[in-house]
Amino acid sequence: MAGRVRVALIGGLLAASGCDAEPTNEVPKFTSGDGTGEASSDPTAGDEHGDSTVGGPVDGGPGDESDAGQGDDTDSGGGPLEGGPLDDDGSGDSDAGTTTGAPVEPLPFEPLYRVSVRVHAGASGLSDAELGDILAEMNHIWRSQSAVCFEFEVVADDSTMSEGFDMWFQPEVGGPNGYYAGDHEIYVRDQPNLNNAANPAMIGAARTAAHELGHGLNLSHDQNSDDYLMRSGTYGWEIPMYQIDASRDRAAQKALADTTLLDCAAAVFD
Length: 270
Hints:
CATH topology of the domain at 102-269: Collagenase (Catalytic Domain)
Number of helices: 5
Number of strands: 8
CATH class of the domain at 102-269: Alpha Beta
CATH superfamily of the domain at 102-269: Collagenase (Catalytic Domain)
Structural class: alpha/beta
Strand order of the largest sheet: 6-7-5-3-4-8
Radius of gyration: 17 Å
């Protein structure tokens, strides 16, 4: 598929462009936002994926964090535990991003910023049902904490949007769990290899994809807790307040014009 070709073409840049690395005992090192892989003394000057100004990655940036010891830790094996961001029954259903008629959760902030995301699934091994659950959980992670959600359009081709974000799901993305190389070059592994967290997300791919969108919303890595969404290589999904503020500032710039709605719609599969 064309999506695989795109990864092959930029595969040599993975170390410079950054990635959500597989579990490792090493704290990932930040590199310069110019993609050279040189260490930066400022952790905000180049986070996990993407060139950045002070405050995080910006559009089209080639990325930053090196992949420190890919796969040298084993998977925790237990997978996500109860208490994750979706409903307690573990059904994978969530009020966020759905049109089930369930009550809409109160917003933590107003207004709600809705951002368009085109999901490219032509090379993915995930079923539509699996991908739908992943996208619903992504919206719950972001809406419940930052009052940001995503209007997802799922396609099989590689045609990109002029606005918003473009994200590819694929069986492999060149080694890491996922990486952000720009707003229209976000890649996520279908089945990420993640370490657990005290309060884990339900689906690994949802957590990794939500993490990568965090880079698109100007967030850098925060390795201070395994429960943080912007921690590398865990099931964590918590967004601390300082990152909520930064993500909302960026989301406001990328949001759809109508900010009167209280939720995003269910993903549209073309």
